[in-house]
Amino acid sequence: MSPILNTDDKPSNAPSSTQPPVPVAPKFHTETHIHGATLADDYGWLREKSNPEVAQYLEAENAYADAVMKPVEALQKKLYDEMISHIKETDVNVPYKEGDYFYNSRWEKGLQYLIYFRQKDNLQAPEIVTIDENELAKGQKFLSLGAYLPSDDGTLLAFSVDYTGFRQYQLHVRDLRTGNDSPVIAEKVGSVAWGNDNQSLFYTVEEEKTKRQYRLYRHTMGSEPGNDTLIFEEPDERFNIGVQKTRSGKYLLLDIGSHTTSEARYLDAARPAGEWKLVAPRQQDVEYYVDHRGDQFLIRANDAGRNFRLVTTPVNAPAKANWKEIVPHRADVMLNGVEVFEDFYVLVERENGLPELTVVDFATGNKRRIVFPEPTYTALPGMNREFSTKFFRYQYQSLMTPPSAFDYDVEHHTSILLKQMEVPGGYERSNYASERVWATAKDGTKIPISLVYRKDMKKPAGSNPLYVYSYGSYGFNLPVIFNAARLSLLDRGVVMAYAHIRGGGDMGKAWHDAGRMMNKMNTFTDFITCTEFLVANQYGARDKIVIEGGSAGGLLMGAVTNLRPDLFKVVVSQVPFLDVMNTMLDASLPLTIPEYEEWGNPHEKAAYDYMLQYSPYDNLKNGDYPAMLVKTSFNDSQVMYWEPAKYVAKLRTLKQDNHPLLLKTNMAAGHGGASGRYDRFKEVAFNYAFILSQLGISK
Questions:
Q1: Alpha-carbon separation of residue 54 from 60, 654, 671, 688 (angstroms)
Q2: Are 117 and 102 in contact (CB under 8 A)?
Q3: Is beta strand 200-206 parallel, antiparallel or unpaired with respect to 186-194?
Q4: Among the options 488, 671, 675, 693, which is catalytic?
Q5: Which residues make beta-bridge pairs with 264?
């Protein structure tokens, strides 16, 4: 088998003689027989990651993509330079207090990664570097810092590092008094927590087959790695586990959860060798999450309704029979989280599709909701390490407002701005406008859409290019955030829209339920409805529509392109989940079994028939398609590289148009793409140059 450039058998979308030949992947026909049906697959061989011809094919696609994009190299460079001009290359973040130290991080011009440091007692003290990611990254093509957790006495730092992008982290401990690192404590580590003796380190590790975190270990400093004590193992392949310490510092918590069900165990953090106890046994389709204050646990649970309520229960008798409700379930308010402090707690909520933060005084029960000024925005808790405090740190940003860190003064009910990210290069917030509008689905459901555009470039006749982004899965709230790189599109007249479609969590748990399992088609039809609404209301031109999504949002891209290839001019699909049937039928793949609760189990005929309706790979057919840029990473652990590779290989044999179809694979990264900040900007500049060139914008 050889994925050479086969110019004798060119697909109908072959380039002109001035362009390089299109890569053609060899076909090796296989069939899966199930439920009386046959799934044919000619490109299953691309799963063979160790086969050098797979990498050869991907590199051929990369070379082809680079050649097609060569005429716009100058535009790529211009876009990259613009993006760099809008960031403060040397900058420092906002410090937070933990124990006797203030912890912080900073960027330095020319360096790809963050430098972490701390100062003892006050912010005038000397800066002591704790972790320099740039040092860790030397000689590596990829770097991701996972855990970063000092011991309570501040002498030791547990940290974990991934060097491939496959989200498999090595756990280390650094002695902050000497700067010396321990040998590797463990491989494939997820969560980490210290016992209160500053010597016991708890950590979870992943299972090889399913790539889920499934075992909890305890390591004692000074002991040999590999001899650590196994505390807990979760046998159900739907469930992941994670360990953490409560903000009070009194208890360690082991969270055990699937997509729909959870339970928790707890341990006195002062007795690291003690017995872990169960809060309440798991109950199918019921989730609960625990925090602590005094002699009570506070528990956020959806046992009484999908949107969660808040209860308290005695630490010494936490069983469900003793739960006492303090915040009831509300059908129109989603309780996303609870932040617990000594004298107050904060309800992290969503109402009418918007995030809300409500501060509640324990002594009086008085509530006060923090007020935000814009029609669409993101607000969420920041770094809050101290339990006994009168301040609540939160982060705020919007499509127009850069990331801003605030401390909310609980006694005086005021927000204090600590830092707003500086946007150099001439950014004037007043030049832009942001709106929230609502599209109506065929079943009458109102779907919120967040918009941003440059005021002086929005044309009244609706002739602007229109960019629409969405996700719509896992109950994930689509973040409405600032992105300085986005200015390169806005300043060229692109109207940018973010559709909060069903399947996400933007309007609560029911919103998620309405776009998962046997309701998944709502996700795709909602996106089409939103796009058509924006055109009908003159936010953009019918023939200038660009769409983008990644991961499960890449599934969205594939599904809506199959449903309405005529509607979109340009499609950008990042690390897309496209081969739904083959992936979900293969229980040996990581993540497949846990995902049954999001998509369905195709080994059941009803689920198979429903999922087959929208699986992008299985619904490709002869016809015209938009210009498409499909991006993936060779070491992606969430959506394997072969899904987009197979999709592009198959589509090349079916598309009848001459629009470009590009597959770009980062051969040294994972699900999030390049890890260095300058490298990431180069990737974005490539994407934007593709979009703009297809819109006929060359400068």
A1: 10, 21, 19, 28
A2: no
A3: antiparallel
A4: 671
A5: 255
Which residue among the candidates 191, 258, 551, 693 is catalytic per the annotation?
Answer: 551
CB atoms within 10 A of CB 599: 25
Q: Which of 634, 632, 637, 636 is nearest to 648 (CA)?
A: 632
Distance CA 310, CA 359 (A): 14
Buried b (16+ CB within 10 A) or exposed e, 69-106: beebeebbebbbebbbbbbeeeeebbbbbbbebbbbbe
Encode pLDDT of 638-657 as tens digits. 888 999 999 999 999 999 99
Q: Which residues contact 683 (CB under 8 A, 6 or more apart)?
A: 631, 666, 673, 674
Encoded tokens for 220: 């004692």
φ, ψ of residue 162 to 5 degrees: the values are: -115, 130
Q: What is the pLDDT of residues 294-324, one digit of tens each?
A: 999 999 999 999 999 999 999 999 999 999 9
How far is residue 340's CA from residue 642's CA, in Å, rounded to a whole number? Answer: 44
Residues 54, 45: Cα–Cα separation, whole Å: 8
Query: Read out DSSP for 434-472?
Result: EEEEEEE-TTS-EEEEEEEEEGGG--TTS-S-EEEE---
For residues 347 and 366, is the Cβ–Cβ distance under 8 A? no
What pTM was computed for the model? 0.95
Tell me whether residue 491 is one of the annotated catalytic residues.
Answer: no
Query: Per 3-state DSSP, what percentage of the chain is helix, strand, and coil (rounded to 5)?
Result: 20, 35, 45
**Catalytic annotation on 488?**
no
Q: In the prediction, which pLDDT does 555 show?
A: 98
Whether residue 573 lies in the annotated active site: no
| Distant-in-sequence, close-in-space partners of 106: CB < 8 Å, separation ≥ 6 | 90, 91, 92, 93, 114, 115, 117
**Ranges of the chain whose pLDDT falls below 50:** 1-17
Counting DSSP H helices and E strands in the chain, the numbers are 12, 38
Helix (H, G, I), strand (E, B) or coil at 244: strand
